[in-house]
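User: Predict structure, ligand phosphoenolpyruvate.
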Amino acid sequence: MRQKSALPARRIGLMFSPFSVMIIVTKPDATDDQIQHIVNRIHEWGLRTEVSHGAVRVVIGVIGPEDLIREKPLAAIPGVESVTPVLKPYKLVAHEFRGTHSPVNIGDVAVGGKEIVIMSGPCSVESREQIVSIARDVRNAGATILRGGAFKPRTSPYSFQGLGVDGLKLLAEAREATGLPVITEIMDTKQLEEVEAYADCLQIGARNMQNFSLLKEVGRSKLPVMLKRGMSATIKDLLMSAEYILAEGNFNVMLCERGIRTFETYTRNTLDLNAIPVLKAETHLPVVVDPTHGIGLREHVAPMAAAAVAAGADALMIEVHNSPELAKSDGEQALLPDDFADLVRRVRAVAQAVGRC
Ligand code: PEP
Ligand code: MN
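Assistant: Predicted complex:
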């Protein structure tokens, strides 16, 4: 006969208790000592905190099992003005969790500040000459982050799958040559250590947006993560996937709109510009837009990049190749370096018009 579980009742209670998040807003005149005391008290109770400093007040997110949070007198701690539960299904990514937008640093580049950040490079890393030369071109045109895939999620198993670890090493060489920090895709939990050794930011591709074990794994990484929207995912699905990463403790997450599947076949995907203002309102995370995969046709990438910035995007991801007809992936959508330089000029003009730079 099977034995009943030997776990103590309290632990079972915790295991099945729903997760809950409360937002503490401190009084405008709360002292640093009071804020430290609030945090210490909450930790003594076995709950986690995440502190955000706004212009006037400090917001403290309190995270833990609902039954534990409910029984604690959070509102009675000196310096606390209000305690409000986050009722949305996504909690840690919700805008109210921080009460402000939070920039994410990739190397020394801040994504989500006033400046529109441009990440650029080829779809795939193909050779030393190719990646170093394109890295120089995009840096000279104004990109501040280098992209390039070493592990490639291809529709066909017979297409080029990427150079793997050799590609990561070449990305690190290109960073050495240009000073640009590197973002690259991780496709599998087994790749984390290798990608962490060479890259500055992890990219989760559209096809892996709901690979929950991968999301949890990068949630335990020290590196920032850019999460791309799945091609058939709703905005809510995207936010719930981001929640997995934050729930593991990694708050350095950016969301990327890269086009969704619609009935339209003229373009590769349909860039969902609607997602930009919606995400900016719903979450504190920076919003990146990838108009290259969004439209899939090089001659139409620049206007969509400009539109994304006008709609409030914090950063752009643009594919560039120095000989697109020879590219091992996505050649038809890659911009030539000179066309990329024109795109950057156009984007900067729009950025200024909307109070960014
Ligand atoms: C890419 O950035 O090269 C890529 C594969 O993008 P996505 O995951 O958006 O298709
Ligand atoms: Mn690509």
